[in-house]
Amino acid sequence: MGRFDGRVAIITGAARGIGFGVAERFAEEGASVAVVDLDESAAAEAASRLPGAKHIGVGANVAKAEDVEAAVKRTVEELGGLHILMNNAGITRDNLLFKMTEEDWDLVMGVHLKGAFLMSKAAQAVFVPQKYGKIVNVSSVSALGNRGQANYSAAKMGVQGFTRTLAIELGPYGVNVNAIAPGFIATEMTDATAARVGMSVEDFRAAAAQANPVRRTGEPADIAAAAAFLAADESSYITGQTLYVDGGVTLG
Predict the structure, then answer these.
(1) Residue 1 belongs to a domain
(2) Are 226 and 247 in contact, with CB atoms under 8 Å apart?
(3) Separation CA 22–CA 224 (nearest Å)
């Protein structure tokens, strides 16, 4: 018996990286998973690689209400319900403030904050009547401030405030809402950052490993383990919290 047997999960930005790592973990534990991504073909391909129960790939721009509503509707119809939402979709448009464009700001806010808002609003319409639901939002250690990421940092701290407020509003209806704040995780996104700053992937990861007490980089599986706990019934007395999964980097 898997802890997610009979459960249906939507994970945004799940065609790769952290999102796919979480999708794999949920599927291994019995969930049917809707892999949501801007690129529908990538979402479908990722869903086809998941083990276990039935899974689907769904193309959606989480910053567009019509896409979000269609994604949730399709998930419920094709997978038979909805019990877990993980708001993971994310982008970066890093730059120092004086170089950051209005478009850079709006795109990051749109995906991280508006996307979480729209997905959560659509999901709660299913969760509240059934008196059950789990929402796991993805924040970041960058919420605490990071040079060149005014947009991303603001969005990720906004996710934490959003999480706390939803926990207050939805708790009486059997819905738990929590967030995970990853530290450095080895993904395509962080590899792209290495290229942007002119470092090799190996050197970039090595530097990140030396910056935290456990002296290693994080992997998508590290976030998946935390997400599995927060999305499971054993965490039903935990809500409104942000769990930093960062190798201890924020301790210093």
Answers:
(1) no
(2) no
(3) 4
What φ, ψ does residue 163 adopt, rounded to 5°?
Answer: -60, -45
Position 173: which residue type? Y
- Report d(CA 142, CA 192) in Å as an integer: 17
- What's the structural domain count of the chain? 1
Which tens digits make up the pLDDT trace of 82-125?
999 999 999 999 999 999 999 999 999 999 999 999 999 999 99
Residue 211, in any domain of the structure:
no
Give the number of other CB atoms < 10 A from CB of residue 97.
Answer: 10
In tens, the pLDDT along 197-216 reads 888 999 999 999 999 999 99
Residues annotated catalytic, as ranges: 152
pLDDT of 252 strictly over 80:
no
Count of CB atoms situated within 10 Å of the CB of 122: 22
Q: H helices within the chain, ranges in order?
A: 17-28, 40-48, 65-79, 102-109, 115-130, 150-170, 188-196, 201-210, 220-230
Q: Quickly state the pLDDT bin for 196 (edges 50, 70, 90).
A: confident
